Amino acid sequence: MSGKAEKLQWHPAFCAATELELRQDLDVLELIPEYNLSKKPLQIDLVIIKKMDWKRTLQNEIGHIMRGHNILEYKGPGDELTIDSFFKVIGYASLYKAQGIAVNKIPASEVTVSFFRNAYPKALFQELKKEGYILKKMYPGIYYVRGKVPFPVQVVVTSQLERKAHCSLRVLTTQVEMQDAELFLEQIHYLESKNERSNIDSVLQVSVNANKQVYSLLRRQNEMCEALRELMKDEIEKELENKLQQGRKQGLEQGLEEGLEQGEKLQLIRQVIKKLQKGNSVEETSDMLEEEPENIRKIYEIAATMAPDYDVEKIYQKL
């Protein structure tokens, strides 16, 4: 993890999270991130087009409103969802509708607009009600806007979404809850396609960088998945190095032999795991590291019970 704070790319992560949410219906959907409305920079965050059988209701709650052409606007942490931004996106949807290759090629009845934001847009809802629009809470965190709008519109408050069904969107925040992070990491174990793994990595990268303390705590409490291990690689190595230094320091303060032994064993375990991951045998690793085969074999046996998420500290404790 770099010391210098970098601007997190929330919008690509949102597109990935949305694809995870709608994964049960991807056979009939085409997702187009950063859809250009003109040759000049005028983009829609995400356009979702139903490729076939568009009258079929999508399984995920956020897709129940969706029809043939669906405009999605995402507001990341710190971004405001105001009455002006609301109508700006309605305008974008109107431009999109008017860009059909023939007159009324895209009927207004086939266009929907969805707004996504983590925080509840209290001011926007007050303004909409003041203007005579009707807000109806269809599901937890999902509000339909009815009235003088030209298209079906929903506002999705991701922090209010049902936790288990929408963890992909709920982790896109700077204040992620431990339970949401745990549920998202559990989801990783049964999503195995290349596309799903790519989307998971995109969401996880943003969520981890925005919530390092939560994921660090989660890492210490649970067996860590490979994706999280890779993202937190720098932090893990730094922590292990600190433990090595601490072990040496304890050795000087409380008895040189004991402290150095702990630090050296941790270092040995790290080296052995690297050899194990490369496919080296016990004998090969023993020769390369100039260690007794029996010592290497013990580490291999313990590590085998944890594959592929090796935990150096737990291996050390079981030796």
Round the Cα radius of gyration to an integer and report it.
25 Å
Largest sheet: 7 strands, mixed
State the end-to-end distance. Answer: 31 Å
Q: In the residues, how many domains can be counted?
A: 2
How are the strands of the largest sheet arranged?
A: 1-2-3-4-7-6-5
**H/E topology pattern:** HEEEHEHEEEHHHHHHHHHH
| Structural class by helix and strand composition | alpha/beta
**pLDDT < 50 runs, ≥5 residues:** 1-5
Described by the principal axes of the CA atoms, the overall outline is: elongated
What does this protein structure show overall?
With 319 residues, the protein is of the alpha/beta class. The protein folds into 2 domains: 10-231, no CATH class; 233-318, no CATH class. Helix content is 49%, strand content 14%. It is built from 13 helices and 7 strands. The chain has a 7-stranded mixed β-sheet, sandwiched between helices. It is elongated, with a radius of gyration of 25 Å. It starts with 9 loop residues before the first helix and ends with a helix. The model is unreliable at 1-5 (pLDDT under 50).
